[in-house]
Amino acid sequence: MQKKLILDSKQLDITLSRLCQQLIENHSDFSNCVILGLQPRGVFLAELIHQKLKSLKVSVPLGYLDATFHRDDFRRRDTPAKAYETRVNFAIEGKNVVLIDDVLFTGRTVRAALDAMISFGRPEKVELLVLVDRKSTRDLPIAADYIGKSVDTLDSQRVLVELEAQGHKQNKIWLINKE
């Protein structure tokens, strides 16, 4: 197994700052905007984005969304899927929703998240923010509005996101070649 570092801690911090600036440019005061982190790993990125926005004096509601039971492969798995917490303590009806996930791969998780999100109301607009966009691996026509880093990958490769909030020593993003 080979690992290639694609973002180190310093680069990740710069990337997150850039993503926050793009959000501020497009949403200015965030008065009609909410953020939803996709479970399980997108919530860590959503919290980092939320903290950075807060340090820039921007206040925006943050929630967690689990799409486990909305996935199209839910019944195909050999082992039962594990559900995670959904916490949406605000209305999304008529809001601009920014979905946040760590990696965009096939697009199936985002499709499932759109189904899960509709249970909480009809948003005016939905945008997608991802830390890593795995190009050339999409099964569905889904594209991110905000991308931290685009990486050409193969189906046989994996992107590993290690964040301090998940218990890792440093924030690092790896591209792993499976054998």
Q: How much strand content do the residues show? A: 25-35%
**What separation lies between the terminal Cα atoms?**
6 Å
Low-confidence stretches: none
Taken from the alpha-carbon principal axes, the silhouette is: globular
Radius of gyration: 16 Å
Count the E strands. 8
**What is the string of SSEs from the N terminus onward?**
EHEHEEHEEEE
Provide structural commentary.
The chain has 179 residues and is of the alpha/beta class. Helices cover 25% and strands 31% of the residues. The chain has a five-stranded parallel β-sheet with strand order 3-2-4-5-6. Strands 1-8-7 form a three-stranded antiparallel β-sheet. β4, α3 (108-118) and β5 form a beta-alpha-beta unit. α1 packs across α2. The radius of gyration is 16 Å and the shape is globular. The model has no long low-confidence stretch (mean pLDDT 93).
A few lines on this structure:
The protein is of the alpha/beta class and 179 residues long. It has 3 helices and 8 strands; from the N terminus they run βαβαββαββββ. The strands form 2 sheets. The chain has a 5-stranded parallel β-sheet with strand order 3-2-4-5-6. Strands 1-8-7 form a 3-stranded antiparallel β-sheet.
